Amino acid sequence: MREVMLKAQELADAILASEIYKRSKAAEDAVMQDPDAARCMADYYEKERAVREILNQGDDMDAAELAEAGQALEEARAVMKALPLVQELQEANDACNRMLQNVNQLLQLNMNGGTGCTGSCESCGGCGGK
Question: pTM for this one?
Fold first, then answer.
């Protein structure tokens, strides 16, 4: 078990040192330091919370209230996604998530008797050679 945990720590360190992760972290920091981007994201998350609260009312939910809250959420999403810093954050997070999914797929493949990464990207397509 100790060896597994040490290798997991090595993997975590490699992920943290990767350019993909660094890009994601830098984009997140940039958004949080930009007042407009931070405000737009906070507004979006507040509207998302309001929609969830309405949905949690179950049978007592007011359809008109849900439609209004849903429209406000979509408007907040459009404003937020129009910001270049938020666009970069989304792209960076997508790349980071793909990397983590590829790591997970590689682990699962190896655990299920597969051969793992051969080093040849011609036969794979998983990590995109990154």
Answer: 0.73
